[in-house]
Amino acid sequence: MSRLALAFEQPAPRLIPFIMTGDPSIEVTEELIIEMEQAGVAAIELGVPFSDPSADGPVIQAAGERALSQQVTCHDVLQLGRRVRERGCQTPLILFSYLNPLLQYGMEKLFQEASEAGFDGVIIPDLPFEESSPFRSLSSRYQLPLISFVAPTSRKRMQKIGEEAEGFLYCISSLGTTGTRQEFADRIEPFLQEVKRYSRVPTAIGFGISEPKHVRYFSEWVDAVIVGSALVQKIAERKERLIQKNSRQQALGEIIAFVKELRK
Amino acid sequence: MGTSSRRFGVYGGQFVGETLMNALVELESEFAKAQNSPSFAEELHQLYREYSGRPTPLTYAKRLTEYLGGPKIYLKREDLNHTGAHKINNALGQALLAKRMGKSKLIAETGAGQHGVATATVAALLDMECEVYMGAEDVKRQELNVFRMELLGAKVISVHSGTKTLKDATNEALRQWAAQVEHAFYLIGSALGPYPYPQMVKYFQRVIGDETKEQILEKEGRLPDDVVACIGGGSNAIGMFAAFLDHPEVRLHGMEAAGAGVDTKEHAATLTLGRPGVLHGSYTYLLQDEYGQILPAHSISAGLDYPGVGPEHSFLKDTGRVRYAAITDREALEAVSLLCRYEGILPALESAHAVSGALKLAKERSKDEILVICLSGRGDKDVESIRKHMGKEKQK
What counts of helices (H) and strands (E) characterise chain A? Predict the structure, then answer.
């Protein structure tokens, strides 16, 4: 059984945090991965920054800008994956990137190297199912799932996406971009029920989830809950302290406390 | 990259978030229905005629022709459209389609504000809500156009992310469209974005080329030898070229912005210097660094100041059917002066790139040839910026 499949065998609630690689530095991202593993997260999404993140709200946009100011590239994210695997990290790692940085890196090279580096999946938010076939063949060649999205607007397309899904199926909770919110789409429950009916893999929900009560609520309906902006915001608020070595441990501790709180 | 009937060779595609995909599927089907609907065509052409003032004339540029001593030069006068440029052709078409689809709100991105003004105009005409996203830098530079859009009843939203220019305004428009996709229609201003937008924008702009063809046949009894248009996203160019693509004897030329020069970092010469990649929903030539991060574009002309280009132009570059070249800020300014003095026409800075390209071309052509320039817009909006730059040139 793959690392990712095993993670979905663990008891709920299963949390999948998203962090932007290199925000505020690659060193800090590495420590966050190690600490989040100890906090018992199900998997970790590692973002590759992009200059034009058109599916992201302001919090993740700003994280991407901070990472770009550190000149973080696709190559750095792969290296980071290798390093944490060498340190014994067993948590599934998902590479999260807009399409263009990956295209310029070379798609085949990316799938091959990400697989060798110990990644367990790839998420590309601007690659819809209809455009994914050339990359699905790479995904099967290198045994690296290409994770698909479904949204409340997917409607007729949901069935074929669910039936072809790999790794887990990423359910978008509400219209719009990433970012914390209190309101989710109308009729979210029938939507998630329908997704579960079609999906051949576990389901995870993301977009706007920021509080323990959201995690608890959605854990009734899906197999895992993805938290991005809320966590990235905690990191942003502690940027200086995370960079300074003498204050880093305490700042990391506060972030991990939030991650644990989400799982309660 | 794969190919399909929805692509231009390998270029184009639908690279957007899942939330928007169903809207594109619906748009494709509604656009197909509209194309087959006589009442849609009738309504659109009535607006072209009675609201925008079409057909626009094809003006023989007698003095410019004599001055250059080369081919006969004609100007396709898109500058005489309502709101001052070709943008209204597409805004009217897409807004009518939005209305048929039952949408109540139009969302648009704008650089200098011309497409924003065109969208705000049709929103007022068709009684629709209108939100225009504009980079904070452009809002500062184009105060008058912001006021003009507000006067027309639109809400202008200043975008502070990234480089605070057109590409960032487009990102924000995509985000806000995703949030309101059930009742809002995204009215893209150029021949770019995900399928079916590039095809749809071409369809609504091809009135430029169709009229030109008819007019030149009437005046000269034959097709032109050369047709020149400027390229930012490339909507006026693709509209003009559409009528001539199947006539290999007509040479087509697209002029992009070289800004301070193609040997500097300050240009918008996407086809001349870019590399294919994915931005704003399609696979096309882009200005980008080796890691796939999009680079800022630079041009004196806000309408050409964009690091991407419509996917069909990428295809036409690769096939060689259209020749693409780049014109510097300084060359465009010289073309402005020349057209003002010789023809009494103040061109938009965008269109001045086409004029400048034509001036170069005219030197290589003989008197029995015919050259058509697509004069995509008027320069009233640029007077302040032209004055500023000409002042600087004088001081040098």
Answer: 13, 9
